[in-house]
Amino acid sequence: MAMTEPTGVWERYQRVRAAVDAAAERAGRRPEDVTLLPVSKTKPVELVRELHAHGVTTFGENKVQEALGKHEQTTDLPDLRWAVIGHLQTNKARDVARFAAEFQALDSVKVARALEKRLQAEGRSLDVHLQVNSSGEESKFGLPPEEVPALAHELTAFDSLRVVGLMTLAAPGPDTAVVRACFERVRELQRRLLDDDRAAGSYTQLSMGMSGDFELAIECGSTCVRVGTAIFGERPPQNDYQHYWPER
Question: What cofactors are annotated for this protein (predicted)?
Fold first, then answer.
């Protein structure tokens, strides 16, 4: 008998969480060491509230304005945290500094300077991941792996930015060997940075994997999987990459 596809957002979240846990166990890892980050882009804030009512407190958004809007609509939920996971233009740094708990797409000193200035003014600090372009696609933001250590060295000068790890998006498509290679490049870069005394931060976190590849990402060491569609339902196809890589 075929399994019924879950229809409610909480039911879908539970199914994904179970798949995350199973993938961690298959990889010989503890399920609690892998964070499931629900990404609510383009979806109504009511779904965020529904998951929060079940104890989910951290959500991801690709676009700053959408994250800010949802933050402002949920100020009655003081434990709710927002992770901005998409490319940041410097003119949006003030907004991120005001409300975000995490920024997972840092890829330049220019953006770091803008965030540092705004965070200092707000009297806040911010957890950040350095974004790695592990697939070499020109359409993607992020630094090539070989350029990441130089940025990591420069970030020692920024007191308000707490570098906690790396983030990447693997190449799209069904070829698991290609996807695995992307994740392994970032895992190897993590190893290098953990041994690099000049690099700012801890590099204990690897944000890798989305709805279509999170199980493979967990096998390759991911500590945070960013899942949108599998939890919140389908979106128009053009949104999938548009929200990560807006037109330059």
Answer: pyridoxal 5'-phosphate
